[in-house]
Amino acid sequence: MSEKPSDDQPSASQIPDDVWEQFTRDTERDIRSSAPKEPSARARMVTERLRGQQARGEVPPGWRTGPAWQEINGRAARRRKLWTALGVTVAVAVAVVALKPSLLPGDPFGTGESQAAEASPLPAETTAPTAPPAGPDPETPTLDEPFAGSPALRWADGEAGIVLPAAKAVGSVPADRVEQALKLTKKLLVGANLDPKTVRGGRPGSALAVLDPKQPKLLDELDTALRSPSREHDPVTLFSRFDPDEVRPVGDVIKTRGRMTFEKGTHGGVAVRADYTFVYPLVRADGPTEVTRTIVRRVVEVELADPARYQVTQGRLLLLEYDQEIGNSSCFVYDGYLHPEFSSRTPTGADPSGPATDPYDRSKDIDDGDDGDCGTVTRT
């Protein structure tokens, strides 16, 4: 292993002596550190517990979707429970440049650049992606790194992920009014999904303030859902809310990715469609530091109508339609909160019955599916 290569090996003969010596020292150290070790008692206990869970058919985090608010009566919001199966393979390379490419002067293979690109933020989403995101290596999220192992690691933080498109006139609607509609839509999204008060289970006052009180029954139904949640009036179909007695957020960052489009509306104004995914890292409120994530994708359609032609409130939005898919939340629980599940705790809610879904896949529209669908996810 430590013998210097002969001159008839062109790939190694060009390596300087000091670089070769550094390589041999590092290689010998790596071999010693990678030697098999007896698993700890804790590791054996965890392994046995996971095997027991698998044998009992226990599954973790779920995925839910639901219809637009006006379609909820008589229909169950579709919720799918999700489970992530991750595997890691390890290969041993014997070639010098494969095992220690950084030893070659100048980084000829660009490994430093690729690693920097992998960790750099993604550009804003302007069109629908054509495929699911390629996830990073499987990693367990921690208090210090709550997005480890998640494609959301490269997403923008909070409001920074809601990038407004350039406003331009739509028919007779001037550009400044289009810009107003876009800003109001962003305010609605922030108030419903990013406002700390909302996320911690409080009343989403800033989101409700954007909606038109003259829209028939809308605010009354939302108030009913917040005050007395039920299957027919479930506030999590529009608001991301967690029970503070059950879980608490990890840090202040909620990862956000999506896009906004606009067109001529049906009420003399401009209609805006927002499609965004939010990723929430959470821990249990009773002490354990195990981190889990809930993924919420929302599609909201609103319109800033023409107050000269319709009985609407100036500067308020009509909520035309909204839908959602929620990954890692107990199925069929209608208490007004999302309920993330933890691998260390026995799952609650209904057993999975639907297909597996990637909660980070934004290349597909939200699936209508069947009522009562409760499936699995491929990752959280």
TrEMBL record:
Regions crossing the membrane: 82-99
Key words of the record: Membrane, Transmembrane, Transmembrane helix
Membrane among keywords: yes
Biased composition range(s): Basic and acidic residues: 23-32, 39-51
Sequence ranges of Pro residues compositional bias: 130-139
Domain of life, per lineage: Bacteria
Coiled coil: none
Low complexity: compositionally biased ranges: 116-129
Residue numbers spanned by region Disordered: 1-66, 109-151, 343-380
Keyword DNA repair: no
Protein name: Uncharacterized protein
The species this protein was found in: Streptomyces olindensis
